[in-house]
Amino acid sequence: MTTVRAGSKGEAPRLLEAAGVAVLELDYESGWQDAIELGRLGEKAGVRVQYRGHESIAVNLLAALVAGLMRPKTTFRQRNLYCQFECCAQRA
Fold it and tell me: Terminus of the chain with fewer CB atoms < 10 Å: N or C?
């Protein structure tokens, strides 16, 4: 059983019907509006439907922060970055 990501409302019903799906994440701007309707469809299919508007990411190294910010963002979610290193002591 896997977790899959729907990038649009049109993609979500197809993923709900796919074999082996345990969780469907709604990862698009209006996903919160569709969560109830798709959640009911998901219950019938035995799939949990969820929408998360943000995600928290802890970063331990400046190099990891720079590398992460250089990669394209593949999700609609807002990212809250928590730097777990001394920012002032680092050179960029």
Answer: C
Determine if the pTM surpasses 0.90: no
DSSP-assigned letter for residue 72: P
Q: Reply yes or no on whether the pLDDT at 19 is more than 60.
A: yes
Task: Express each pLDDT in 31-50 by its tens digit.
Answer: 999 999 999 999 999 999 99
Q: How far apart are CA 29 and CA 53, in angstroms?
A: 8
φ and ψ of 12, to 5 deg: -60, -50
Share of residues in the chain with pLDDT > 90 (%): 71
> What tokens appear for 79 in the block?
């990212």
16 CA to centre of own chain: 17
Task: Using the CB atoms, write b or e for 23-55: b if 16+ within 10 Å.
Answer: ebbbbbeebeebbeebbebbeeeebebebeeee
Q: Which amino acid is at 50?
A: Q
